[in-house]
Amino acid sequence: MPHKKTEHQLSQSKCPIARAAALVGDPWVLLILRELREEARRFNELRNAIANISPRTLSARLKFLEQEGIVARTVIPETPPHVEYSLTEKGRALVPIIAQLQEYGETWLKT
Amino acid sequence: MPHKKTEHQLSQSKCPIARAAALVGDPWVLLILRELREEARRFNELRNAIANISPRTLSARLKFLEQEGIVARTVIPETPPHVEYSLTEKGRALVPIIAQLQEYGETWLKT
């Protein structure tokens, strides 16, 4: 999520692109979507899979995505119990955008 | 562009999605792409078309996009001369992502 004030302003916009930009106009959000598009993940699995993300940032982004209905947080009742994060239907609808970012990166942003 | 350090780290990633996220993981970049996808624009036209963007932020994002080869800055030799910004071929390749954001916003982020 972009800066709080910016994110709020954009999310109220009449323009659907601006509303979507308020949601995904953030690299960490895009990388969380990358990780969750295949399967549910635990916090530490996400933390290890996304280079350079701090626990604080990851926690804030997961909370934001949960509030926006993009990510579901599920307590798995095993021993010991643990928490998993997964995409909701609203979240899964963002997966084609991640696929396009991949294609763009492979074509235009070669290392 | 995300925070400088984050942007730099991500742009060096082996992952094409991370490299693309370094470029478009920013709401202002996404809205500049929205404006330039139809036609070339002047600075003030962009400023008026993107609600809540400051001149300083707009200038910094245009400079970033120019350095990344996404936007071309052209001096139009009229009287008086003026500057126009337009998408390069590398920039135009991002337009399908903007179209998908529009579709997502219309479907899932109704006001």
TrEMBL record, chains A, B:
<dbReference type="InterPro" id="IPR002577">
    <property type="entry name" value="HTH_HxlR"/>
</dbReference>
<keyword id="KW-0804">Transcription</keyword>
<dbReference type="InterPro" id="IPR036390">
    <property type="entry name" value="WH_DNA-bd_sf"/>
</dbReference>
<dbReference type="Pfam" id="PF01638">
    <property type="entry name" value="HxlR"/>
</dbReference>
<dbReference type="InterPro" id="IPR011991">
    <property type="entry name" value="ArsR-like_HTH"/>
</dbReference>
<dbReference type="InterPro" id="IPR036388">
    <property type="entry name" value="WH-like_DNA-bd_sf"/>
</dbReference>
<protein>
    <recommendedName>
        <fullName>HTH hxlR-type domain-containing protein</fullName>
    </recommendedName>
</protein>
<keyword id="KW-0805">Transcription regulation</keyword>
<keyword id="KW-0238">DNA-binding</keyword>
<feature type="domain" description="HTH hxlR-type">
    <location>
        <begin position="15"/>
        <end position="111"/>
    </location>
</feature>
<dbReference type="GO" id="GO:0003677">
    <property type="term" value="F:DNA binding"/>
</dbReference>
